[in-house]
Amino acid sequence: MSLKFRLSHRLDEARNRLYFIMRGAFDSRVFVDGVIDVYARLDRPWRYDRLFDYRHSSGTPDFAELQRLAQWWAELTQNADYQGRVAILTTDALDRVRAPIADALFPKDVRRVFAHESEALDWFATFPPNSRSVSCFPSSA
User: Fold this and answer.
1) Any idea of the CA torsion for 99, 44, 24, 100, to the nearest 10 degrees?
2) Which regions of the chain does DSSP assign to beta strands (E)?
3) Is 2 helix (H, G, I), strand (E, B) or coil?
4) Mean pLDDT of the 2-8 span
5) What's the domain count of the chain?
6) Alpha-carbon span 70 to 106, nearest angstrom
7) Which of 67 and 95 is assigned the larger pLDDT?
8) Residues 33 and 11 sit within 8 Å (Cβ to Cβ)
């Protein structure tokens, strides 16, 4: 029996980072509703580096729900001049392949996939927001 999906978040104002942690069987509607709710409560949420941790969840996001989130985000950020950084944490090889699908949906974000949180945090600390860094997966991963 799979665990019910849970989405939690943590805001690190000092580092300008927003963390989302998913657990259990992935529920796209709950995920999108939860992310929108968190973003809606923040002043200019695009200012934050965003980290999405999928390592403790199973299943895949529904593309129509991702499109719904992208539409909402596009309306929110339509007059914002920014380039955001989004780190995706996953150990699932298929997630690594699927992650670039979101690039077209969120064109102002630079998105990278990592297996370890420390690598994602290093990327946030090392590369400026407008950096188009190389792949973040070592060949031994």
Assistant:
1) 0
2) 6-12, 17-25, 49-58, 84-89, 109-114
3) coil
4) 91
5) 1
6) 6
7) 67
8) no
Kindly report, residue by residue over 15-33, the tens digit of the pLDDT: 999 999 999 999 999 999 9
Helix 28-40 to helix 63-77 angle, to the nearest 10 degrees?
10
Question: In this structure, which amino acid lies at residue 140?
Answer: S
Residue 118 counted as domain residue: yes
With contact defined as beta carbons under 8 Å apart, do 116 and 138 qualify? no
Residue with tokens 């946030």: 124
pLDDT exceeds cutoff 80 at 114? yes
The CATH number for 37's domain is 3.30.750.24
What's residue 128's pLDDT?
A: 65
Residue 137 domain flag = no
Q: How many residues does the chain have?
A: 141
Contact indicator for 131, 86 with CB cutoff of 8 Å: no
Q: Which pLDDT tens digit goes with each residue over 84-112?
A: 999 999 998 888 888 888 889 999 999 99
| Rounded distance between C-alpha atoms, residue 76 and residue 82, angstroms | 12
d(CA 24, CA 98): 19
User: Residue for token digits 């989004």?
Assistant: 86
In a domain, 139, yes or no: no
